[in-house]
Amino acid sequence: MSKPDLNLLVTLDVLLTEGSVARAAKRLQLSPSAMSRALARLRDTTGDPLLVRAGRGLVPTPRALELRNQVSQLVQGAKEVLRPTEKLNLPQLIRTFTLRTSEGFVENFGAGLIARIGREAPGVRLRFVQKPNKDSTPLRDGTVDLETGVVENTTSPELRVQALFRDRYIGVVRIGHLLTQGQITPTRYAAGRHICVSRRNIDKEPIDEALEPLGLEREIVVSIVGGFSTALALARTSDLIASVPERHTGNLRAGMHSFTLPVSTPEFTVSMLWHPRLDSDLGHRWLRECIRDACA
């Protein structure tokens, strides 16, 4: 079996990006005839026409569309490998990083993260965007540089993942609430009026599953789809019980009474996720270090 000509990957990447033999030839500083010969070799190698005539132009085949992102990543990865080692000049770095996180993450860890970035790289800006779902497309297409959250089965396997911290659910009530006195049993806990916070738009959470074998059920008065800050704001000014992640809400629970849940629920890991094309990016590496330290 003959060895593949890896130079053809660069040619294919440019052809699929430009969609034109003439423009691809100009970009690679080749003659149109040389580019046509390269396209013929690519067609022979892949067993697909890749670009076909449509009017005066060329359009990609389904196989070409399938290859486009993969080829682009391979070429970008090769460029990163061959790029000379650089030293990151943080005081001179001008860049905006877009982070997709929960509101609780920003409220609890954002101030420390922003303070460090301001000290080390005053030209760097952070742009926080909401995280309405687990869709990995924003990381893949580059509209988001990094996100935080719990890795699930639906998380794209191509993403890089690094754990930040373990978390668990606890109960929170206002100062003076009945649950601030005496032992909190499953029965006392379940008998209260509860706020349910769910990102999956369902009312049954791990807490409810833990209560079920005991024959107990929470009275859900309010259901919130989204962050935990709203739940804590309601619990702070009422007799409602909020059940929230401990680490994720540390700052938000100031001035409230927190307690260990009287039933066992599984802990979970909060991680940061990014696309592999940013693995070797020095600025992104520094950002990941800042986030790790902020969550330590």
List keywords for this structure.
about 300 residues; alpha/beta; Arc Repressor Mutant, subunit A; D-Maltodextrin-Binding Protein, domain 2; five-stranded mixed sheet
Task: State the CATH topology of the largest domain.
Answer: D-Maltodextrin-Binding Protein, domain 2
Structural class by SSE content:
alpha/beta
Going by CATH, the architecture of the largest domain would be: 3-Layer(aba) Sandwich
Shape: elongated
What is the strand content? 15-25%
Summary, kept brief:
With 296 residues, the protein is of the alpha/beta class.
Describe the protein.
With about 300 residues, this protein is of the alpha/beta class. It contains 10 helices and 12 strands. The chain has a 5-stranded mixed beta sheet with strand order 4-3-5-12-6, with helices on one face. The longest helix has 21 residues, at about 60-80. The chain starts with 6 loop residues before the first helix and ends with a helix. About 25% of the residues are buried.
Write the layout of secondary structure elements.
Elements: H1 7-18, H2 21-27, H3 32-46, E1 51-54, E2 57-60, H4 62-82, E3 95-100, H5 103-120, E4 124-129, H6 137-141, E5 146-149, E6 160-167, E7 169-173, H7 186-191, E8 193-197, H8 206-211, E9 219-224, H9 229-236, E10 241-245, E11 257-260, E12 268-274, H10 282-295
Parallel strand pairs: 3-4, 3-5, 8-9, 8-10
Antiparallel strand pairs: 1-2, 5-12, 6-12, 7-10, 7-11
Helix pairs in contact: 1-2, 1-3, 1-4, 2-3, 5-10
